[in-house]
Amino acid sequence: MYYIKDAKIRRMMEYDGAPCAEVGVLPGAVSDPALLVYIVEDQREEGYDIVRILTNDADTSTDWFDNNMHDAFKDVTSSAFTGSMIMTPEDERSKFQRELMTYGDLKKQLEQHFRNLE
Q1: How many other β-carbons are positioned within 10 Å of the β-carbon of residue 76?
Q2: pTM for the full model?
Q3: Can you tell me whether residue 86 is helix, strand or coil?
Q4: Tens digit of pLDDT per residue, the chain (118 long)?
Q5: Which one in 5, 61, 116, 117 has a CA-CA gap of 20 to 30 Å to 88?
Q6: For 75, phi and psi rounded to 5 degrees?
């Protein structure tokens, strides 16, 4: 399971023609990569749904500028949650999404960002 150390909205953008928030997520475990999580509004999942997840394997000591012009960003949307003996991959994904939405005031910030687009 992925433990969240920090999560912040980096920018608003479009994903498949819909408004989307790009959220940077820092891991709580040393071995986990930083993530870029793409969130859209959705009435089925507490108002929001994760549509894309990228890992960021760039080493900030050597690649101190944040860019996506190299292979450090990898799409792991379909493979990020592998499941365990007690949880299915879908359960892990739902748990991660719930924990992300309840991290700090992220959900409130998402509401404000999406409202400002209208």
Answers
A1: 14
A2: 0.82
A3: coil
A4: 678 999 999 999 999 999 999 999 998 888 888 899 999 998 776 789 999 999 876 655 555 445 555 556 788 877 778 878 888 888 888 889 999 999 999 999 999 999 987 6
A5: 5
A6: -75, 115
DSSP string, 30-72: TTSPEEEEEEEEETTTTEEEEEEEEEE---TTT--S---SSTT
In which order are the strands placed within the sheet that holds 34-42?
A: 4-15, 18-27, 34-42, 47-56, 73-75
How many Å separate Cα 9 from the centre of its chain? 9
Q: Where are the domains of the chain?
A: 4-116
Conformation bin of residue 45: beta by default, left when phi > 0, alpha when psi is -120 to 50 = beta
